User: Fold this.
Amino acid sequence: SCASKSESADQFQHQNAACYRAFRMPPKDGQANQGQLFLKGRVMRKFDTKVQYLKYKILREVARYAMEDRLLDCYTEIPGIIVKGPESTMRCCIYKERAIVSERIKLAMGGDKSNPNVIEVIDIACDECPVSGYNVVHDLCRGCIAHRCEDVCAKNAITFDENQKAVINKENCVECGRCASVCPYGAITNRKRPCERACKVNAIHMGKDKCAEIDNNKCISCGACVYQCPFGAVIDKSFILDVINLMKKSRNNECKLYAVVAPSISSQFSYARLGQVITGIKQLGFHTVVEAALGADMVAYAEAAELAEKKFLTSSCCPAFVDYIHKQFPDMVEHISHNLSPMAAIAKYIKETDENAKIVFIGPCTAKKMEFQKESVRPYVDSVITFEELQALFDGCGVDITTLEEGILDNASYYGRIFARSGGLADAVSQAISEQGIENFNYNPISCDGIEACRAALLRASKNVLPNNFIEGMACSGGCIGGAGCLTHGVKDKNEVDKYGREAFEKTISSAIGFMK
Assistant:
């Protein structure tokens, strides 16, 4: 059952913190504790930053109010729960802090319905970053007499003050960077906002009001900007209310609610055991938990056959990568695998098998929130939440997973599970080629780790100079284990993914999907 109405957020959080027989330290006055856990003198964190922890607290409260059928009270009560006052701790005053919380509540409840993108900017929260562009670091500028910066500037944007130090006129500057390249002291630097720096597809720019704006024609919803924004002004919409409605229907036997979990779940919820997480998902109201890795087995098997037939292919598993091809390399669209992603493939199979099924994907990916709304996927996947949102559901519904018995999650093979890391798909397709006995085909894959590597491979392929015949594209660095919706974003050990894969009962792709034939 949900936490009682009278419990404060911090009390409720403390009550559910017996993670690994640990306890959560109460925050000091005016400080958030970032969801820290303390065990035998070691600090374990559920979240990396205070921004991420704030996002979680709002999702948790929205989930709690939704379970108690009190959504109408969200805007009047939650801001006061999150920002207690009387003094501000993050912004100029508690009134601005509470106003930003209200905007965050909107995003937690689905966001702007008129905006098709799942990534949005909270304007009121985006006001602290300096203006991006080329600037002179006056301590480094020596006021030299060569004035090379002035000579190369075609727009007359550089002048000099009374100390002969360079000044850049932003009205004239076109950000060409020539001045920076010729300065002998390196005194001219290109300062970018964190969100702009994080966006490798140049989808974020500064609007007229100096707030960040997202170009939906370029954005691939990878979520890199969401995690990198130090003020939490860029955030992904949540479909947690839709999932809660499905949970309620499942509890009332109106449907069978399936959770399709990404294989990267093995690197999440480090304070509990995976089997306890599986049991916790079922306690929320899910009927069955299925590995998306089983869908990965299906996709690897099918993509191997498609590749052998077409001789050249790009993968269809990462929705951000697929979207990137559509938006930046339209001539390459014909080479995208015609297979559904692992999420959609296993969901399609479940719905064809159980007509009463409703399906929620749980993973690290914000781009999946865009994918499930596509016409080709919408019939199979009913909603998507991230691992961050799953944690909020656990705590908002009073489910302490550390106290639970361990459930079983064993549907897929080793090869399906290693889709979670860069290179895993390429290895799986190689295995599928071998298992299908495909002969006289020289398999030569390239695994692209991050969108910049994807761009380089696609550029070469578009010019017919890529020696490889299969492009595995992963928009996030490291693969899915580096997704924006992860609980923590430290460097992930790919060997841990392989270790989890080796624990699979099924050792070959054929044995994993054999019952489907």
Summary: The chain has 20 helices and 17 strands. The CA atoms of residues 351 and 379 lie 9 Å apart. The longest helix spans residues 292-310.
